[in-house]
Every structure is written in C-alpha cells, then in structure tokens.
Amino acid sequence: MKKMTRFSLIVVVLLVTSIIAAGTVWGYSALRKVDATANDNIKIYYNGELQAFTDTDGSKISPVIINGRTYLPLWAISELVGVDIEWDGNTQSIYLTSNAENPANTGTPKPQTSPTPNTNTSKPSNTTNKNKGTIDDPVKFGDTYYWSAREEYIDNYASADYSFTVLDVQPVTLDYIESLGFSLNSNASNFDYAMVTVKVTVSNAKVEYGEEFMNLPFYRRIWGTETPTGQYVIGGTDFGFEGSLSDKAEEAVLDSKGFIKMIKAGEVCEFSYTGKAIIPLTKNAENYLVVEKDASLDYEDSFLYFRLK
C-alpha cells in the first residue's frame, strides 16, 4: 500500500468536512452551518498542469472558501491523487483505499475528460467502480458496484444512489427448492440452480410527487442469468422464503410498529438490506447474475452483470 502524501492527507480533511456538511437523515447532531464563498478565479495545478473540475452534469466546480481555507469536492481530488472511496450511509463511514493503478504521484498528470451531461448512468461521485458491469466486463465476485438512477415508478419518478454486492453463491437442488414450498414445472431439470446472497444499499433516495412505500420504488429486480456467450435464463425467485431479498428489503423500512414507512416528495431516505434469491443457471457454463440497473435506459444498457465465482 502506498504511503499517503501530504496532498493525500488533505483529501482526508476534505472528506470529513464534506460529510459533516452533507449529512441528511442520519446523525442530525453532527450538522452545523458554515458560511462559504465560491471563487471562480482560483486555479488548481497538478504536476504543473492546470486542472478543470466538472460535475456529472458538465457544470464547472469552483473552489469554496470557508473561514479562509480552500475546499474542493473529495471525489475530484481523490481521482487525481489515486484514492478509491467508498461511502456507507448507514454507519456514516468512509473507506479510503490507495489505488495502485492510478497514475497519481508519478509525475504524469491524469487526463481530464468531460462527463456526459444529464445521464442516469453515472455512479455516485464518492465511489469508484473497478469494472463496467457489462457482459464484456462484469463486476468481479465480491466487489461492490455503485450507480445512480432516476426512473419512472407508476405515475411518479424515483431517484437514488445504489450499491450492489454479491456476497455468496451456493448450489441448490430441485428437492431443496421444493422443500421451500415452490412448485417446479417440467422444464426445471434443464437448468442448475444457486442461492445467491446479495447486499443492496440505497441512499439519497427521493420521489418527485406525492408519497410511496419506501421500499418499492427503489427495489433492484433480479432479471436472471446470462453466460459470456449470450445464453440466458430469465427469472429468479427473490420472495416467499425465509431471508428472501424482497422480505429483507421490506424489513429494512419498517417503523417501530411494524408498518412500512412512507417517503414523501421533498424527503430523503437511506436504507440497506442483505437477502437471498434462487437463480437458474445454464448448465456446463459460467453464468453471470443479471440485475436491473436503470429501467429508464435503453433495454441493453439497463442491466448490470455480476460474476458468480
């Protein structure tokens, strides 16, 4: 692991400051107001190269002055100096990891690219994905994938930041599936089956109109499985048995009386859940778990692919 440079240490300070300022649902006692001034004239150079920071919508990001000190968003600096960032909204914890593949501190400036404005495919700004999540570059087993989405939900719109991790995969038999109370059709023996355990986090979750049950607009549906060669099986059972993914998603948003919480327009919520699903597998082939990422995208772009081994 690389030693943290003085510049990297500044990132940590920026990180803590930004989280205190940006806290929402959890930990109100940690919030405090500050007077800040954006200064468009301040220039940032890295390894002698002038840097231009832009947000995910393409707008310019300017340094902010607070009590005589200069601040920038953590994600902008972290990408320059080679630090991967993970944010756990449930525990208000930030995890920093040195990224050996990043060209930081090598004397070679990192190229600047302009983000695509107004898309739903960008990941939350304080995270780093190691894979694209496509069928050609699936998420590695055990890795966490982060993204943001704004989708139509019935007659409403829901937006949130998400993360998804495959924690465990265990083969299961048809007898075991029947023991859970499920009926199997005549084609069931044409496939293998596995029980997957996954963790989902939902943060910065909002609806735009009225109110909705908190779990439903943000539930990530398992589409099925697909092989690297394009063979696929649509389906998966994520309900109806102890520890199922849908049950755990509901449990995560129950109030003290056991009722599902509601989210109203203008409110923000965060929750996470870990649950199980039974998935069909193409026999004698490597299979990827396919999860619905963003229903607002074109069909082929709306899914994420996760390795199962």
TrEMBL record:
Entry superkingdom: Bacteria
Annotated segments matching region Disordered: 99-135
Residue intervals of the Copper amine oxidase-like N-terminal domain: 60-99
One Pfam family linked to the record: Cu_amine_oxidN1
InterPro entries: Cu_amine_oxidase-like_N, Mao_N_sf
SUPFAM superfamilies xref list: Copper amine oxidase, domain N
UniProt feature, compositional bias: Low complexity: 108-132
Name of the featured protein: Copper amine oxidase-like N-terminal domain-containing protein
